[in-house]
Specification:
Radius of gyration: 14 Å
Shape: globular
Order of helices and strands: EHEEEHHEHE
Strand order of the largest sheet: 2-5-4-3-1-6
Distance between the termini: 8 Å
Structural class: alpha+beta
Number of helices: 4
Helix content: 10-25%
Number of strands: 6
Strand content: 35-45%
Length: about 120
């Protein structure tokens, strides 16, 4: 099973460059059968650009999570703190086998979906 995640383009491309090995989330999909993430690069790209397998998902307090993931977070500690403001814990999805598509896809035409606020299940 797959989900589509909306990710800011600057971070989405870092995943496929290999410099961002963790994707952070304030909330996570509930279905434990999800094994792959389809990456929707939000505006101004507004296209599906690739996908990756889920290696592991960490759910921890924010200090522990940052200590574990900071080296390959692809973001600054200040951005991390702002992103998780008001939360006691967060999620980090460890990226495995990222594959950028040869051509970018329209989310509506290819998946029958509107761009998700956070995520959407792929049928």
């Amino acid at each position: 099973m797959k989900v589509i995640l909306s990710i800011k383009p600057e971070f989405a491309f870092k995943i496929f460059e290999g410099t961002k090995k963790f994707e952070f989330r304030r909330v996570l999909f509930k279905n434990k059968k999800v094994k792959n993430i389809v990456v929707y690069a939000s505006a101004p790209i507004s296209k599906v650009i690739g996908e990756f397998e889920i290696d592991t998902i960490f759910q921890q307090d924010l200090t522990t999570l940052w200590d574990k993931t900071s080296e390959f977070s692809g973001i600054t500690e200040a951005y991390y703190a702002d992103y998780f403001e008001g939360k006691k814990e967060g999620f980090a999805i460890k990226v495995k086998n990222p594959k950028m598509y040869d051509s970018q896809l329209c989310i509506k035409e290819s998946f029958g979906l509107n761009p998700p606020q956070s995520f959407a299940y792929v049928r």
